[in-house]
Design brief:
Number of domains of chain A: 1
Structural class of chain A: alpha+beta
Oligomer: heterodimer
Number of strands of chain A: 2
Largest sheet of chain A: none
Helix content of chain A: 40-55%
CATH superfamily of one domain in chain B: PDZ domain
Shape of chain B: globular
CATH architecture of one domain in chain B: Roll
Number of helices of chain A: 2
Largest sheet of chain B: 5 strands, antiparallel
Distance between the termini of chain A: 17 Å
Number of strands of chain B: 13
Shape of chain A: elongated
Strand content of chain B: 15-25%
Strand content of chain A: 15-25%
Order of helices and strands of chain A: HEHE
Chain lengths: ~50, ~350
């Protein structure tokens, strides 16, 4: 699985109940949300060059 | 994909997930990783503390260390790290953010009217390299970015990336007493190590002149500590292992031209063996700040359409990327070399002074 295919799999992931993994695109907003919820952040960089 | 999607979704559920495909506004002073990669992940606290990195590759396959299972495993294993940190936070010292688009080289390009639609990850390396050369702070050893732990004798397990899968004979790790199945805990001041990217990050920050690196590992539930004795040039790797890195395009010397590999049928037509290295020259670098390189190749007599079969007497390369990496790592600007080419079926040798 090349990086592109790996990323595509990751970003398309859904739970069996069809609740998709929510991928934020605004890092600052995501940090605020993580701080409020004491949640860790997962920041994925996917270069599509 | 089997259970992969479910496994990842479950492991990612406790996290606030962010996907970034353009570094333009990213603070690259705070969020650093191996910018040669096309996929990288940071596991971090909202205050900017980075717990772990993921996404590195070994010298062989681009995806050798990428799997949903290993990524999900890291996400699960990092949760205790987050909970412990969240109870006793030590935010990184405040520093002035630096958006990638504001790197001096990119700022100058924009000031010159160039439109930059997207800052790619490797663009950060390119821009930082140019700036360091301008400021005369770049040193040749700086090219050895994010060394693979094999440089100290450790091959990590792609599935459980903190596990030692192999200890290379006669290496610093072997001399320090590491064994297969040991679990890396810390390298230098970086720990816990939970991924290949964590290990590469730790090694990246050790100076090339370092001769000792503390290491901790776990074996049979007991933690051990020792020291890796690093030889001179410990960060260096062969061109074949460096070949995948876009960073090589920043280096000097460089061929000044490139092209596409010949397929088997084309090789046969030219009387070459299937394993012979050969590529058709499809471009001479005649643009940008390195146009002098293409001019040097043209002056030597090279033309688009020529088939290159040897450079400086060497005709064994695994790939065109290795060819370019070999020139950058092994040769010196100003070297008098020879290009061996086929033109209209005739073998010719061109004298070529390698440009800077």
């Amino acid at each position: 699985m090349r990086a592109a295919a790996f990323a595509a799999t990751l970003f398309a992931v859904t739970l069996p109940a069809q609740a998709p993994t929510a991928w934020h695109t605004d890092l600052d907003a995501a940090r605020q949300l993580a701080a409020q919820n004491h949640a860790p952040l997962l920041v994925v960089f996917r270069c599509e060059r | 994909m089997g259970r992969d999607p479910e496994e990842f979704a479950a492991a990612a559920a406790p996290y606030v997930c962010v996907k970034i495909t353009d570094l333009t506004t990213v603070d690259i002073r705070a969020l650093r990783f191996d910018f040669d990669l096309t996929f990288a992940a940071l596991l971090m606290h909202a205050d900017g503390t980075i717990y772990h990195r993921y996404g590195s590759r070994g010298p062989d396959a681009a995806d050798g260390y990428l799997s949903i299972a290993s990524f999900a495993r890291l996400l699960r294993n990092a949760l205790p790290d987050h909970r412990a940190y969240d109870q006793a936070q030590q935010p990184p010292p405040p520093q002035e953010p630096l958006r990638a688009i504001d790197l001096p080289v990119l700022r100058d390009k924009r000031a010159g009217g160039q439109k930059i639609d997207c800052v790619h990850c490797h663009t950060v390396n390119d821009a930082e390299h140019v700036e360091a050369v301008r400021r005369k702070t770049w040193r040749r050893d700086d090219l050895w970015v994010f060394p693979d732990p094999r440089r100290v004798g450790i091959r990590l397990d792609p599935a459980r990336q903190e596990r030692v899968a192999e200890v290379l004979a006669d290496s610093p790790a072997a001399r320090a007493g590491l064994l297969v199945d040991d679990v890396l805990v810390a390298l230098g001041t970086t720990g816990p190590i939970r991924s290949l990217a964590d290990a590469a990050w730790a090694l990246h920050h050790e100076p090339p002149t370092a001769h000792a690196l503390p290491i901790r590992w776990r074996r049979d539930e007991r933690e051990h500590e020792g020291e890796l004795a690093l030889p001179d040039g410990w960060k260096q790797c062969p061109p074949g292992e460096y070949a995948w890195r876009p960073y090589k395009w920043n280096l000097s010397p460089s061929s000044g031209f490139g092209g596409s590999p010949l397929d088997a049928a084309a090789k046969t037509r030219l009387g070459l063996g299937a394993d012979d290295f050969a590529f058709t020259v499809t471009y001479l670098v005649d643009w940008g700040e390195n146009a002098h390189r293409g001019r040097a190749a043209a002056t030597a007599g090279l033309r688009k359409g020529d088939v290159l079969v040897a450079f400086a007497g060497r005709s064994r390369f695994q790939s065109i990327d290795e060819f370019h990496a070999w020139i950058a790592l092994e040769l010196t600007a100003g070297d008098d070399t020879e290009l061996t080419i086929l033109r209209a079926g005739e073998r010719r040798t061109l004298r070529y002074r390698l440009p800077h």
